[in-house]
Structure formats: C-alpha cells, structure tokens
Amino acid sequence: MNNVYTKLKNNFIEDDNLEWFINLDKSIQCYNKIVNVLQKPIKLALFYGKPGSGKTFLLNKILKDLDNENIIYFSHPFFNESDFLNEVCEKLKISISSKNFEAFLKEYDLSLKGVDEILKNQKIIILDEAQLYPPKLIEKIRLMADSRYFKVLFTVHKTSDEDVLAKDYFSTRIWESIELKSADLAEIRVYIQKKLDDKINLINFSQNDYALIHNLCKGNLRTLNKLMYKFLQICESYEAHKPSMLSTSKNNKKLIYMAAIDTELINA
C-alpha cells in the first residue's frame, strides 16, 4: 500500500536527520541564547524544558553549526566519576592516569598560565539528561568548572510543576538558565506546514483543526510527531480503500480524533 501519504507520514518520524530541523520562535530564541552562553567566560549554565520539547535536537543543531573541537557533548548520563573522566579523556584525546577529579585537575594541562590563556583554551562540556546524574557526580563536575579549564552546560528535563531549578545541586552557582518552552498554537501550525511542505494543500487543515491538534499534544513536539504520523497513516489507508473519506477537509476532525485514540492521547 503505497500512495501520496506513505512518504508524507515519514516526515514525522523522529530521527537524527537535521535537515528536518524546523525553526520555531522559541527554538530560535534558545538557539541564540545557548550560542551566546557558550561564548561567554562563564562556569555553569542550565538548559531545560519538558521531555519532548526538542532540547536534544536543538543541541545537535548547535553542535553541527558551531563545529567547535573545544565542545565535548555527552548524550547519555554517567553514574560514577571514573567512567566520566575516562570519556572526557577520550574526547580530549589525552591520556591521564588519574581516576578522581581532584587528581585529574592537577594533572590536566597545567602548562597553561594566566587567566587569558586558560579561557582561550577552555573546553565546553554539554551534558544531556543531566537530571539522571548522581548529585555527588554533579558536585564533582562543578569542581571542573571552578578550575576555569572547563565550562559546563547542564541539560535537564522539567518534569513537574516543581521547577528543576528548585533542586539545590542545579540552582547553586548556575550563572545562566535557558528554558525551551512548549510550542504555542502558531508554532504548531508552522511546524506542521513545514513538515507537509508542498503537500500542505492536500490536507488543508482549518484553524480549528490546528487548535485541536495543539490541545491534544499540549505543545509537545514529540507527541505532535506521533499524532501526525498516525493521522497520515490513517489517510494512507483511506486513500487505498475508501478515498471518498478524504474528498473533503470536513473529515479532518474525525481523522484527528481517530489518530488521538490510536496514540492513546484520549480514551475511546
């Protein structure tokens, strides 16, 4: 079963293809703020947002655009300092015998003299999923930032009304905080239209359709992708077996609800 909807639905599959990065107002603002922070001589910064808001995708976009060998990016968490230090050394392509932070900092590149030279050669460590790191390891990583040889950007999930910033081990000594908020209705509309590209007229969503989609996914891009994939999969099936169902945009609402039920966003 292949038709016009078959390929279209794949535009909403989440992968690492940065060609499908969609610039939205909030993501552009966060992009510029993060790039600015990475260029500042600061120690610690925090980037946070709800799961599925697009934080990791945005980070990968920044990493690709900057293409800076001084940036060390860890996409998955570590749970002990030895493993973390081993990975840091591997990323830096250096060999250091130390297995703890205190000794590591004494051994690491002590030939640099003066604040200007240290800041010029400062390495940037970006930690995704930082909320999963043990508090003791977070404290050790702070010591790395205090040395001024490194600056650290923590990326964490905002998972509840109790803001992540309230946690002591993230709030203390954070110099700048950047939040990627959920997409609003206008951004949801832009996201869908750009993903549908030249086939946008094939769907012909009304403003009420966009509002319904926004309400169902609550501005979460990951949820939006799942909903739209299922919506287009349903369209694919109707195109193959009952194309009259797609002959009018009045049925969009019905198809959206069908997709929402299938993806368990609502109960039947």
Automatic annotation (TrEMBL):
The species this protein was found in: Campylobacter majalis
Domain AAA+ ATPase: 41-180
Protein name: AAA+ ATPase domain-containing protein
Matches recorded under PANTHER family: GENERAL SECRETION PATHWAY PROTEIN A-RELATED (PTHR35894), PHOSPHORIBULOKINASE _ URIDINE KINASE FAMILY (PTHR35894:SF1)
InterPro entries to which the protein is assigned, alphabetical: AAA+_ATPase, AAA_22, ExeA_AAA_ATPase_DNA-bind, P-loop_NTPase
A Pfam family matched in the record: AAA_22
